[in-house]
């Protein structure tokens, strides 16, 4: 059966960074079954732009309300109906939540793999999440093709983006926020605001600095302003494809654990990611033979602690607050990317 796979449906409805990780399976399927394979995707509406511009993806089904029962969800019914009209050879479920159970059970497919169908036997604690996604394909894709498949994403022509946002030929991207920036309480993945302000000042003396972030995070970014004159503020001013293009053409990206870091790795732009509570192997941007991932971490004894009682009880966040501006600046400087 696997020699005749022509149609595949992939389900991944998590955050943007999680979606980027999952794209490691796309090239694996193409390498194994050829460029004519039809790959459809189920994802959140906010991620659709990233997938709809990707020539490797045939159709994207939006799924906004993941917890809504199948019987009440128009979007879930549409997915099932489409599969009934033209059945898939393989359904790959990369979602772990039980709310997907009725959907994946109802979709018409010859074979179903992934979460809810087969457990991965490898130790997830020592495996990057991009690599983890590919483990579900071990019975249908050769190890050779799995080894050379990495997350890749679509971009636009840079000339249009460069003119639209008034970008120099040389610039770097800073992404001070992350998905927890609007949550109440201590953001354990965040770097100190004053450190961002100082880094922005120092870097902007040498190269154009582009600040990126989501429109919903504008209140956070006000704390970092006013910016120096050599800074371009793109917070809330671009869509995902435009953002990916800006990142692709940057000298490098500096960020905390966020989707921007994963995008940078996927478009082969050097990334410097500041990590504290997260696992520097499991949660870092996916390292490939063609990209440059630099993790800046103090590797405290209490790290990683993400989603544990240790993080819940942490009040001073020393794993992030003790990362100095000099550490970050010197790391970038030594890379030669500012030359």
What does this structure look like?
With 339 residues, the chain is α/β, with parallel strands linked by helices. The chain folds into two domains: 2-147, Glycogen Phosphorylase B (Rossmann fold), CATH 3.40.50; 158-334, Rossmann fold. Helix content is 33%, strand content 15%. The strands form two sheets. The chain has a six-stranded parallel beta sheet with strand order 8-7-6-9-10-11, sandwiched between helices. Strands 3-2-1-4-5 form a five-stranded parallel beta sheet. The chain is globular, with a radius of gyration of 21 Å. The mean pLDDT is 92.
Q: Strand-residue fraction? A: 15-25%
Strand order of the largest sheet: 8-7-6-9-10-11
How many strands in all? 11
Over all CA atoms, what is the radius of gyration? Answer: 21 Å
Largest sheet, in brief, is:
6 strands, parallel
Please bin the fraction of helical residues: 25-40%
Helix/strand order, N-terminal first? EHHEHEHEHEHHHEHEHEHEHEEHHH
Shape: globular
CATH class of the largest domain: Alpha Beta
Total of helices:
15
Oligomer: single chain
- Count of folded domains: 2
CATH superfamily of the largest domain: Glycogen Phosphorylase B
Give a short overview.
The chain has 15 helices and eleven strands.
